[in-house]
Amino acid sequence: MRLKQRVALAQKGHDLLREKMDALVIEFFEIVRRIRDARVKAMQQLAAAYRTLSFSFALEGTVETHQAAREVKKEMTVDISTRHVMGILVPVLDVKPIERHALARGYGLYTTSSALDEASRAFEKVLEVLLKLAELEEGARAIAMELEKTKRRVNALEYVILPTLKATVKFITMRLDEMERENFTRLKRIKAMLEARE
Amino acid sequence: MSVDRILQFELARLNMHLPKQRISLKDALSMASPHLVAGDGSKHTFERKELERLGQIVPPNDWDNLRLPILIAINPKLGRGAAEISGELEVKVVSSVLDKEARGEEVIIYRPEIAVLRARLPTTTQYLFMVG
Question: What's the predicted TM-score (pTM) here?
Fold first, then answer.
């Protein structure tokens, strides 16, 4: 009886974990689709940003551009919170607008040209997309790890635990049937002997 | 740890992400950073855009009655890949998001629909596993 209860529990666990695995697959494909879109966007914006940076290098000179980059205020505010996807904590980055006014960047406007402003603006824009991409990739990594764990458990239940338990139940049932048959035969034999004695 | 204990632990863990108490759409919209605390003590944040979308689907006088997150109940008894949405307003939201005809207190949705629903409302919907 206890073994049958264990089989029922294992079966229920298997069904639920399989449902969880299916749900995780749905989540994983969705996040992968969003990553693909975010990557395309990031690549386009990065290409545009590097193009403006090349202009800046050409106009200002490499040393001057690097010097201006060193003077830039490297601060930004990101609120990091979490959301749940079936028990997996996925980060949520709330990026405050990064695009700043030219005066707020920190480099001198007198010694730099508008090409550098353009490049800065383009990189500030792309940073928002990159942070979103980082959030999605971290989410995908967490979901993939949980998916792997769940798959391993479902497989263990499906191919090891459930067949072993079912085989044990079958063996016990067969053994009990066999004992019942032996008992029946023994009783019949005893009855026959008693009848013969009378 | 025996297999049974591992299994019981796994089953108990399945619904750890659910909140102790659901909040209304009205409360969520009034919060500066809309969130709730999950059963394991962690924080689940709602996306404001999603809340605003729900606000457009549900009439303002019903904002108090729509409890968040909307639960997608997975019950193995319904068959693989099927899930149930309960509650009149929840059914209304889901039918609107999925562009599906549904009325009453309950609606059963299937895997492709779950994928669409989760893609459109990733933070305001949650899975509920019916351990039973």
Answer: 0.80
d(CA A38, CA A47): 14
**What CATH number does the domain containing A21 carry?**
1.10.287.3240
Asked whether residue A191 is domain-assigned, the answer is no
Q: Return d(Cα B22, Cα B70) in angstroms, integer.
A: 9
SS3 content of chain B, % helix, strand, coil (to 5): 40, 25, 35
Q: How many domains does chain A have?
A: 1
Full residue range of the structural domain in which residue B9 is found: 3-129
Instruction: Report if residue A188 sits inside a domain.
Output: no
Nearest residue of A to residue B123, measured between CA atoms: A83
Is the ipTM above a cut-off of 0.85?
Answer: no
As for how many domains chain B has, the answer is: 1
A193 within a domain of the structure (yes/no): no
Contact with chain B for residue A19, Cβ under 8 A: yes
Please give, rounded to a whole number of angstroms, the shortest distance from the CA of B114 to a CA of chain A: 8
Tokens 């003077």 belong to which residue?
A: A71
Which residue in the set B43, B129, B132 is minimally distant from A82, CB to CB? B43
How far does the CA of residue A150 sit from the closest CA of chain B (Å)?
Answer: 10
Residue A13 sits at the chain B interface (C-beta within 8 Å): yes
pLDDT by residue for chain A (198 residues), tens only, comes to 788 888 888 888 888 888 889 889 999 999 999 999 999 999 999 999 999 989 888 887 888 778 777 777 777 778 888 888 887 888 888 877 777 777 667 776 667 777 888 888 888 889 888 999 999 999 999 999 999 999 998 998 889 988 998 999 999 999 999 999 999 999 999 999 999 987
Residue A57: which domain range? 2-154
The answer as to whether A145 is a domain residue is yes
How many angstroms separate the CA of residue A27 from the nearest CA in chain B? Answer: 7
From A6, A19, A161, residue closest to B74, measured CB to CB: A19
Q: Which of B74, B123, B131 sits opposite A23 (nearest CB)?
A: B74
Q: Which two tokens stand for residue B13?
A: 């863990």
The answer for residues whose C-beta is within 8 angstroms of residue A135's C-beta and 6 or more apart is A91, A92, A93
